[in-house]
Specification:
Layout lengths: L9 E7 L3 H12 L6 E7 L6 H8 L2 E4 L4 H10 L5 E4 L4 E2 L4 H12 L3 E3 L2 E4 L3 H11 L10 E5 L17 H11 L4 E3 L4 E4 L5 H12 L2 H7 L3 H15 L1 H6 L1 H30 L1
Helix pairs in contact: 1-2, 5-11, 7-11
């Protein structure tokens, strides 16, 4: 039987916290999948808005868990039964054929993990800069972390690192590659609703993620520099695209510079925390 057969169960895990603005569109997109065998588990980390109530309307199970996204995902994975597990952030919207296309990609290539390219949607100048940046990455498999993975690769200690919040996706990708797992890109485009980005919101998130960089770097020597080189190559490869939108390209490069500073600042805090 083909891996894309209709009876292959795919378990979708969505960690969330206070995402009332976006979670309904996310979960509704999961329920609209053309692949009929989809199980949906939401793991909520103490939401104080209407997130939990919305999740109950769409999900097969809603669990309470935390304290961070990695722990939420691992809890959700343990609660699922599918042959494949797909995880989403609660501000992502899937095209209806996403699961079908991802399974078909795995069947055609023998991959045990499949990445889903994303595009940023939202309003405002900085969101447009982020959207332009993501356009540069669409065809680069080195810059996409897998979202659909065979369940057995995520159980028995193979899940998300609890020591990381932000780099845990890249950590899993590198561990899978080191173990010889094949990762492919599916021919889909997921909408990532980032709302109206501001410099402050971006800096705060990168600082927070940067606190996990020491743990990531300790596991994967040279990976941070390699990621930076891959990003730079993607910009060079897409110079014509960037040249057609010079104002947003300059904003994108300026924002990336600020993000790099926030990562360094966060990493210093992470090293202090570890030492303490």
């Amino acid at each position: 039987m083909s891996e894309a057969a209709h009876d292959v169960l795919v378990s979708v895990v969505v960690p969330t916290r206070d995402n009332e603005r976006t979670i309904e569109a996310c979960l509704a997109s999961v329920r609209r999948q053309t692949h009929p065998a989809v199980e949906l588990v939401v793991v909520d980390n103490g939401s104080t808005d209407g997130t939990w109530a919305t999740a109950e309307r769409f999900a097969d199970r809603v669990l309470a868990g935390g304290p961070e996204r990695s722990a939420q995902r691992n809890l959700g994975i343990r609660a699922t039964t599918g042959t494949w597990v797909l995880w989403l952030d609660s501000d992502m919207i899937l095209p209806p054929d996403t699961v079908e296309q991802a399974l078909a990609t795995a069947a055609a290539t023998g991959a045990s993990a499949v990445a889903l390219p994303e595009r940023t949607i939202g309003s405002g100048f900085w969101t447009a800069c982020r959207a332009l940046e993501r356009e540069c990455y669409l065809d680069d498999p080195l810059l996409h972390n897998p979202r659909l993975i065979r369940r057995e690769l995520l159980t028995g200690g193979g899940g998300f690192a609890l020591s990381m919040s932000g780099p845990e996706d890249a950590d899993l990708r590198l561990r899978l590659r080191d173990a010889g797992s094949r990762i492919e890109l599916a021919p889909v485009l997921v909408d990532h609703d980032e709302g109206r980005l501001t410099v402050r919101s971006v800096m705060e998130k990168r600082y927070y993620y940067g606190r996990s960089l020491p743990a990531f770097a300790a596991r994967h020597e040279g990976a941070v520099a390699a990621q930076g080189r891959a990003v730079a190559r993607s910009y060079a490869r897409n110079w014509r695209r960037l040249g057609r939108r010079p104002v947003h390209a300059l904003g994108m490069l300026g924002l990336r510079g600020l993000e790099a500073g926030a990562y360094v600042w966060g990493a210093r805090r992470g090293r202090r925390d570890a030492a303490g």
